[in-house]
Amino acid sequence: MQSKLEELDLNLLKLLRVVVETRNTSQASKILGISQTSVSRGMAKLRETFGDQLFIRKAHGVEPSELAEKLAEAAENMLKPFSEVLEAYQTFDPVEFEGNVSIAVEHSLLETFGPGLYRALSQALPNALIRLVYWKEDSLHHMFDRQLDYVIHYTLLPLPQDIYVHHLSEIAVSLVARKDHPVLSKSTQWEDIHHLPLVKLVAEAMKSKHDPFDELYVNKGYDPKICLVTHSVPIVVEKLLNSDAIKFSSSYLLSHSDELECYPLPPIPRDLRKFSVSGSYLQSKRGYPINQFLHQTLQNFFNSIVQPVTR
Prior knowledge:
This protein is an alpha/beta fold. The chain has helices spanning 2-6, 10-22, 25-32, 36-50, 66-91, 107-124, 139-144, 190-193, 212-219, 233-241, 289-304, and strands at 55-58, 61-64, 100-105, 129-134, 150-154, 163-178, 198-201, 226-230, 247-250, 260-263, 274-282.
């Protein structure tokens, strides 16, 4: 039985369902648009697979057995997802789409690009219910439960092979502090800046034992003077504006205040001079129209962004 099931043509399940509904092979052939001979051959194949008592011949048609009715119900449940996928491919229209779109974004990226991301998504999917949320520890679980359609994160975030990852953008890093900073306006060499207080913005999806910039300080024989660790960009800005604190960050932080300025980096490894941003979704959804559309929409958004010029 198992080997026969593996060889079973899906069209036969459709035939089985229609014959059970109509109880007439001639009517089934008209509905399916196939010849009576093809119906007879299909019925013979079904009897060969499931047994001779699948249907009982009557004077004006056939009577399905209990097994046939249960198989028809199972076939309906099995074929429905195929039909839904095919229909989605054939009928997807982003302007008319009224479904839910859930996107999790790494905290600092959402704080920085959130308004622009929302504008791009709402213009591309004007009738969709859009959910833009922070990436959290349970977000990966939500991806596998198909509660999340897409994730925007730092490329260094380790993800399972079940998740497709594609590059969105590279963001240059600089030193950010208040304008006319008493030290940075004169020098950004390590020997001149190592004593300055450091501000850290927490990257929830990138928790690790070692911060690469902290390690940089230590490797050079300095002790990083961390004065603030927070999830909040406004708090970061407040601290930078009202102290001599500095932050290794992108120049996008300047969009939060005209009183901030970017200064040149001290000598640091090349891999710390910029960081990469990626988008991800389930490998099993790579062919879905909505995921392909999100991919293109978000890629276009990041391509359109011009990073502020540093000093």
